[in-house]
Amino acid sequence: MARELHLNVNVTGSGRHAGGWRAQDDPTLFVNIDFFRHIARVAERGTFDSVFIADVAALPQEPPVEPYHPGSA
């Protein structure tokens, strides 16, 4: 039986690096639908099978003063 590899892209607003939000020209892109459309089109050109967008794409009531740092309390 042949095995298949399915590719998925997990879209996040600033990536996984704690300082990733600083690397974007516009750090508010994660609330702009065109940001997600662009990533989906790139994934489609790369023959990815799916695009995952987390169900927490919303702004918090009180935005953090600085980005999240893993391991900090």
UniProtKB/TrEMBL annotation:
Gene3D superfamilies documented for this protein: Luciferase-like domain
Cross-referenced SUPFAM superfamilies: Bacterial luciferase-like
Lineage: Bacteria, Bacillati, Actinomycetota, Actinomycetes, Frankiales
Protein name as it appears in the record: Luciferase-like monooxygenase
Origin superkingdom: Bacteria
